[in-house]
Design a protein that fits this description.
By secondary structure, the chain is α+β, with helices and mostly antiparallel strands. It contains 11 helices and 23 strands. Strands 1, 2, 3, 4, 5, 12, 13, 14, 15, 22 and 23 form an 11-stranded mixed β-sheet that branches. Its EC number is 1.1.99.2.
């Protein structure tokens, strides 16, 4: 899918709290603005996940003369999707040839490994096996191989059972696709490294800053006033929003259309008990169901030495719903009230019920991994972490799979100065440095930086 551009009309509102200013030496200093002149910046990036942090870093590296800030509503960076994921460095096999996902993933993988080596960030290029366990999956596996070749994924190889078992003795299946350059890393630590780079170049970082409103300032040089719920203000010439789970809320409050709507899906993982942590050295994935953007229950050795299995994919009852008990009735009503969600839920009701059952009954989740890993039982697992995926959805119930950006110069003093990153799905972390370059290119072109 190609880059999607939509018009932005002048905005009214957006969401946030009090904040901390993080100095380059990483000390958090609380600052009060109620009786001070607002801080003014050439660019303010809203959202301290991996895409926002990478973009702020790229912008200040290109334009060191500009005054740039990044604001984050939580008390640390990478609080949500960027810090709650499987940690896989994707190679670019799954994505439609010619799509932004494919292009940015392949480019991002190369940039990521270069960055990790330069910064001394621990990673493992442990590889990935995608395993077909049924005859019906073999044609889809061959299609994945063709996609990988067309996308320029390096050194991928089809394997028979003998070759598969030589690589991973505990793996079983009919045929597999081997990707040697797939790896693992702690993406939360990578995000914080991006922020450190940004601060060392003179950028300012604000935590605990939940934006409440945008308004036009009297200062023509810095016309965008970003106001927090406690009345603190920051002024900017230009704004980039990378708000992840809140991206549609932010966009709507700034005058953009509701679509693509963000529907939160919780992904729950299991841990293998430590005594079983050597059962596999590589990522082992099933052949995914092409109807969904989820890659299926997979086994991943983490950089901390633990092995996780998952995730499932179940509707979260709020945008930051990491547990069954996390419920926000206003957000849940908004999700259910969206016609696209209702159409999708009706169409795939059976799939949804199965995923919920696997969440509630661990043996059902374990059965998914037993399809391609032998000699493993429910006793070998314990409850693990969870993450929430921001799944963009259209009004017809279609799941939006590619990156989406909204911008349109000439829509008012505020609207013409903002670029929204509406959808940056997996492999957003792998692609983060490539996405940042694309965003910086776009901002340079549209805002004449």
């Amino acid at each position: 899918m190609s880059l999607i551009i939509k018009s932005v009309v002048p905005f009214p509102m957006l969401a946030l709290r009090s904040f901390q200013c993080i100095a380059p030496e990483s000390l958090c200093i609380m600052r009060r603005y109620s009786h001070q002149k607002p801080q003014c910046y050439d660019i303010v990036v809203i959202g301290g996940g991996i895409v926002g942090s990478a973009s702020a870093r790229e912008l200040i590296l290109r334009k060191p003369m500009l005054k740039i800030a990044i604001v984050e509503k939580e008390n640390r960076f990478a609080f949500h999707q960027s810090g709650n994921n499987s940690g896989v460095i994707h190679a670019g096999i799954y994505y439609k040839p010619g799509s932004l996902k494919a292009k940015l993933c392949v480019e991002g993988l190369n940039l990521s490994y270069e960055y990790f080596d330069k910064k001394g960030i621990k990673y493992s290029k442990c590889g990935k096996l995608i395993v077909a366990t049924q005859r019906s999956e073999v044609p889809r596996l061959l299609d994945l191989y063709d996609r990988g070749v067309k996308n320029g994924v390096k050194d991928i190889k089809l394997m028979d059972l003998k070759e598969m078992r030589e690589l991973e003795p505990n793996c079983k299946g009919l045929q597999a696709l081997w990707s040697p350059h797939t790896g693992i890393v702690d993406w939360g630590k990578v995000t914080n490294s991006y922020v450190k780079d940004f601060e060392e170049c003179g950028g300012k970082s604000y935590l605990n800053y939940e934006v409440n409103k945008f308004t036009e300032a009297e200062d023509a040089e810095y016309p965008v006033m970003i106001i927090s719920s406690k009345g603190h203000t920051i002024q900017a010439k230009y704004v980039l929003t990378c708000c992840g789970l809140q991206s549609d809320t932010v966009a709507v409050l700034t005058g953009c259309p509701e679509e693509p709507k963000i529907i939160p899906f919780r992904g729950e993982y299991l841990y293998l008990v430590p005594s079983k942590s050597k059962i596999a050295s590589a990522n082992i994935y099933p052949v995914p169901d092409p109807r969904f953007p989820f890659l299926g229950v997979h086994l991943t050795p983490r950089i901390d030495g633990r092995v996780i299995v998952g995730p499932n994919a179940i509707l979260a009852f709020c945008k930051e719903g990491y547990r069954w008990g996390d419920v926000n009735m206003k957000e849940l009503k908004d999700i259910i009230g969206f016609s696209g969600f209702r159409k999708m839920a009706f169409k795939y009701a059976g799939f949804g019920l199965k995923e919920m059952s696997r969440s509630l009954f661990m043996p059902l989740q374990v059965m998914q991994i037993q399809k391609y890993i032998q000699d493993i039982t429910s006793a070998d697992f314990e409850k693990g972490p969870a993450g929430v995926r921001a799944q963009a959805m259209a009004k017809d119930g279609t799941l939006v799979e590619d990156f989406v950006f909204d911008s349109k110069p000439g829509s008012g003093a505020i609207g013409s100065r903002v670029l929204h990153c509406r959808n940056a799905p997996s492999p957003g972390a792998t692609s983060s440095l490539a996405i940042a370059k694309m965003i910086a290119d776009k901002m340079e072109q549209e805002f004449r930086l």
